[in-house]
Amino acid sequence: MARYKLDDGALAAALGDLPGWAVKDGKLHKQFKFASFAAALGWMVTVGIAADKMDHHPEWCNVYNRVTVDLVTHDLGNAISSWDVELAQKMDEAASEA
Length: 98
Ligand code: H2B
What we know:
Layout: H1 8-16, E1 22-24, E2 27-33, H2 37-54, E3 59-63, E4 66-71, H3 82-97
Antiparallel strand pairs: 1-2, 2-4, 3-4
Helix pairs in contact: 2-3
Bound molecules: ligand H2B.
């Protein structure tokens, strides 16, 4: 699938379907909270493998049971792209199963 930068309208529409996500410092941002460190780590492994298969990698930070995520597409001049939205959807899906 091609990567394309989202214009303001497409980004607003995408955010409407991504509960808890917002644009922060030009990146698609969300903080996930899990029941334990082990649950957070398990989610990171699941999502990390999916992200690597997409060849699209998150900026993220784990502290105990929380994972802060920032998604942006470096190859498109650090714009938010269709791939960031796709990865955000995969993250939400995996979190709902964690
Ligand atoms: N991840 C993210 N977040 N943005 C990118 O533009 C990107 C990536 N590009 N992972 C990929 C790797 C690219 O550098 C490789 C060469 O396909």
